[in-house]
Amino acid sequence: MKNKDEMIGGRMSRVDAVLKVTGQATYFAEYEVPNLTYGVLVPSTITKGRIKNLDTKKAESAPGVLAVITHLNAPKVPAYEAQEPSKTSSGRGPGMMAFHTDEIHFNGQPIAMVVADTFERATFAASLVKADYQEEKHQTELKANLAQGKVPKTNKSLQDYQRGEKDAYKNAPVKLEEEYVLPTEVHNPMELHGILAHWEAADKITVYAKTQGVKMTQQVIADTFKLPKENVQVHSQFVGGAFGMSLRVWPHEIATILAAKKVNRPVKLVITRNEMFTIAGYRPHTHQKVGIGATKDGKIVGISHWAHVQNSNYEEFTEATVAMTKFMYRIPNVNTTYRIVPLDICSPVPMRGPGEATGAFALESAMDELSYALNVDPIELRLMNYPEKDPERDLPWSSNHVRDAYKMGADKIGWANRSNKPKSKMEDGMWVGYGMATGTFGAHRRPATARACLNADGTLLIQSAASDIGPGTGTAVVQIAAEVMGIPASKIRFELGESKLPDAPIQGGSATVASVGSAVHDACLELRQKLVELSGNALKNAKAETLVYEDGKISSPKDRSASITYTEVLKRNSLPKLEVTKESKLDEDQQKKFAMYSFSVHFVKVHVHPTTGVVKVKHAVALADAGTIVNHKTASSQMMGGAVGGIGMALTEEAIIDHRFGRYVNNNFADYHVPVNADIPDVDVLFVDKKDPYTNPMGSKGLGEIAIIGMAPAIANAVYNATGKRVRELPITPDKLI
Amino acid sequence: MKAFQYVRSTTAKSAIDALAKDPAAMFLAGGTNLVDLMKRGVTEPDKLIDISRLPYNKIEKESSGVRIGALALNSQVAEDKLILEKWPLLALALNAGASAQLRNKATVGGNMLQRTRCGYFYDTEMDCNKRQPGSGCGAKEGYNRMHAIFGTSEQCIAVHPSDMCIALAALDSTVIVQGPKGERKIPFADFHRLPGDHPEKDNTLEKGELITAVTLPDSPYAKNVHYLKVRDRTSYAFALVSVAAALELEGKTIKSARLAMGGVAHKPWRLLEAEKALVGQTISEATFQKAAEIAMHGAKGYAYNSFKLKMAPNSIVEALKIAAGLTS
């Protein structure tokens, strides 16, 4: 008998749950290697200019210090010598060369690393490094530099876009034009960033990293140091949250590798919480403008969407901020403009729902504003403009059940209790408001390879160099293998997070189950096939797909007595194990035939205090149209986590720079407010749970990004419904409502 | 962090003597603020004298009032039966502060000595007259959303961060200190100071003095009290504005009132004039609004904190309404 919870669509607990809650899961900073030393960074205290003089003498003579590495003494980096730091590894390399020049690009940029025999001694010695600078005038303020915005060269999909007539909204009978501002937000996973670098030989290195792709890290290090890939080994079995910040190799990782070379001992770097803000990326501060116009009966005629996005001055970062506007609703006239604004600050990096979460705040707020201007229910407005097919590429949806999701969410939150007139309902002395918003993200699938190895004892080992930064990838993979092979989950082990394993893509863009899961699915199918072929007379003439695979045996559906166990097959063929390695990818034709997207809808009910302006989210409903839900338990947790992130985005999170100095003033956990338990209401998670016929063998679509996309505008819309105040600049702190 | 010596004292005398001998030494109790400041290089003592084992952790009823040992933990005071029964305002304020973990470690004396959370004070690369007298004030022309609207000076516009102290200010408490010259009693209102020309001094403690207790007189404020804290998230955030309100009622008439505000000044901001205006009045929103208006005399906003000019009076009215039972 198959255990339903272990199959696709089940709700089994995480395969690594016991390891995690008992502290046996080992994270990069917990590895111990002989002769380990500790690195601590020295940050630049100016924002732009050059290092004139660097005094490292005091630090060098401090107790326990082995070396102070700077641009003056760092070992040479082959790729830097060839002037190709960012050419490496499709932009996932460290865009800026660590310890290679005297140039300062942003405040907090590492100018030195102190290596000592203990972390404490390295920390103290780092405070003794003194620098003199030749300072230049810096620019860190987005608003003051909008005119410097430029079209990105590196991303063709973000060139100016036009469908139909330009700015057609201006001629519509009902129209509005508003600006929406998102502040800088910082990922702030619990686990701090860093790396442990160990040169095992002059041309051979092992690193323990916090990465969303061990193969990506391996490739970047190999390219940077011009080493054969197999001479670089990357371990990253567990990651304590990342949300996108570990989708590239950062300069401080290369710096640590350099330091390890310099001291000829392994070096571990764990950056500080303050440095998590300054040197490891963020969701970029973005100014947006949306113009939207409709006929009096609610047909949207045109929409224009402009975005200006905070960037560094040394490379280009782009994200799909204006993408959703092109296809979410049936609009004949659309134009979008995306500009990056180079500033003297570290580069941004994708953060959960990159681009779309920012864009959805503008688009879905504007849709809400339009609904009030038309005096129609916001859900009704969306239904009236629902696109039967993708209006951007004129393709049918692979699946789109967003209308079902609207209905399910409206029922669950009690939408019928909402008044269409703002500031008209009170409950327990609080203004009450309801809001909703839609989210979407591409249902991607990338090539991936998995190895499935059946052992003589009937256990199954699955291997792929995937990452599991928290969503439960390992659990989903075990379920897929259990379903295909008919082997109980307890007999299946999944190995991941090692660069020596078969190729897997980065864990980003909500694509791991679709990519790695498909490879596991296909590898197991082939393994099944091989077992049938080796099974002997009884079944060998049967077609593999007509047989039943259950309880570790193959049987004929017609004649259940004609069966053979997997272990028996191996035994008869004198095989110690049977192994299949299989690459799997999406049929490119399929990709051209269908528009593949996941969708989410968020509903919230808020209370707003009439005189103090404090907002309390009372109830949230998060819905996903994400195809087949492989594991309802981990998927629910992921949706809930996204809702929490969305509450932070809407109400509390904002990284603030004092532009006089180009320096953050709240880069710590006391002053940068991520939501706490007391901020989180009951979150109901609902799934449409309908298989997508085209995305992948499981029929799943990605979940990680859509979990947050749309949550912030749903809250902003509810706050408007409660108070009649439209907050277009997040976060919605109490001062903005009094 | 700079290397430092650590010594442990078991008597007040040995602690005070040790501090007197060493100008760069500091007392260590719960360490929830001091250790952070040391990590950031804001405070660099060469010696820590651990006083956490001194016998000052009791909460004792006195003939009139209560004596709370300086080393009583914040959580211990907030859960104490006597405090909950007679001075519930203090428990409310304590529970609004920090997080459960911090309250389990932080002491009453240490809470009173918390340094400001001004970002310019914490960042050793920025100007701050409180950290580095004469260097300037980074906040005045900078990001000052959390900063003071009362009692500021050219040198400093920082706010005092404690919640507990706002209740202690309202409840007319007294701080008991031991020093090289013996015991001294400081009325709570005189314990913290305004920045003036010496923002580096948060309070009126003299060198070598050790807080041993805080005493509260018997009070008629066991029932109609409220501590309202308006903040950016529901827990573990400093106050944008907070209000400690206590009313002594006879029917609907106010016999006496106590009011203090947090998040608005360099010290707990007692609202004496507003208190007076409440006495003899009937509880009503209008009465409370009048008092709030009086309370705001002399307030001054800066670039990012002018919202407090509205949030503060709104919060006073709200806290009084809840204390009076006019709203829940």
The CATH architecture assignment of the largest domain in chain A turns out to be 2-Layer Sandwich
| Radius of gyration of chain A (Å) | 27 Å
Task: Find the CATH topology of the largest domain in chain A.
Answer: Aldehyde Oxidoreductase, domain 4
Largest sheet of chain B: 5 strands, antiparallel
* Secondary-structure arrangement, i.e. CATH architecture of the domain at 224-324 in chain B: 2-Layer Sandwich
Number of domains of chain A: 3
Q: What share of the residues of chain A lie within helices?
A: 10-25%
Structural class by secondary-structure content of chain A: alpha+beta
Q: Tell me the β content of chain B.
A: 15-25%
Average of per-residue pLDDT values of chain A: 96
**Per the principal axes of the C-alpha atoms, what is the gross shape of chain A?**
globular
* Molecular shape of chain B: globular
By DSSP (H or I, 4+ residues per run), the number of helices of chain B equals 13
Provide the low-confidence segments of chain A as ranges: none
- Write the CATH homologous superfamily of the domain at 224-324 in chain B: CO dehydrogenase flavoprotein, C-terminal domain
Regions with little confidence, pLDDT below 50 for 5+ residues of chain B? none
Fourth-level CATH superfamily of the largest domain in chain A = Aldehyde oxidase/xanthine dehydrogenase, molybdopterin binding domain
Widest sheet: strand ordering of chain A:
3-5-1-12-9-10-11
Q: What is the CATH topology assignment of the domain at 224-324 in chain B?
A: Enolase-like, domain 1
The CATH class of the domain at 224-324 in chain B turns out to be Alpha Beta
Observed structural traits:
heterodimer; A: 738 residues; alpha+beta; Aldehyde Oxidoreductase, domain 4; Aldehyde Oxidoreductase, domain 3; 3 domains; 7-stranded mixed β-sheet; 5-stranded mixed β-sheet; 17 helices; B: 328 residues; Uridine Diphospho-n-acetylenolpyruvylglucosamine Reductase, domain 2; Enolase-like, domain 1; 5-stranded antiparallel β-sheet; 4-stranded antiparallel β-sheet; 13 helices; 21% strand
